[in-house]
Amino acid sequence: MLFREEALNRIREGRVSVVFRHWRRARVRAGTRLRTMIGLVEVRSVAEVPGVEPADATAAGYPDVAALRADLPGDPAHPLFRIEVAYAGEDPRIALRTDEAGVDEVLAALDRIDRGSRRGAWTRPVLRLIGSRPAVRAGDLFVDAGYAELASFKRDVRRLKELGLTESLEVGYRLSPRGEAVLGRSSK
Description:
Elements: H1 5-13, E1 18-22, E2 33-36, E3 39-49, H2 54-59, H3 65-70, E4 80-89, H4 92-98, H5 103-115, H6 123-132, H7 138-141, H8 150-162, E5 166-168, E6 173-175, H9 177-185
Antiparallel strand pairs: 1-4, 2-3, 3-4, 5-6
Helix pairs in contact: 5-9
């Protein structure tokens, strides 16, 4: 579920608590926490609704129902969903980036990922590549990392990000302090 930056800021400030989308079927579930550029957004409830009530337009950050309807994402031929949302705090990966404790556990996790990969051991080579070429577009890195497809490379970098080892920049990536510590202790 995508949000505009302005909507995310209003969610974080508590000025927006409801969003609407036209979907074929619900794409999120209550209780889901979405990672966004401002941190976590929790989905409190999801319901298909016949229309928008005036109070909901205000809760969605619009002056009236007409303004909300004019800005609704999705195909109007699809059902309308009302989604209650709330800011749920910082992205936990941010704290992981500076946590240099547990390096042995992270190394063991990288070993498990490499053993289970059809590509073979890719985690350390990708970390080394990002470390040696920070702020370089993924489109310029994936071939040097031995990938045939950009999407596969990005997926794997996201796996490293989940462990707090990399950070996404406006352009490209860089190693986090945790990533540098792991790479410094890595022998592969």
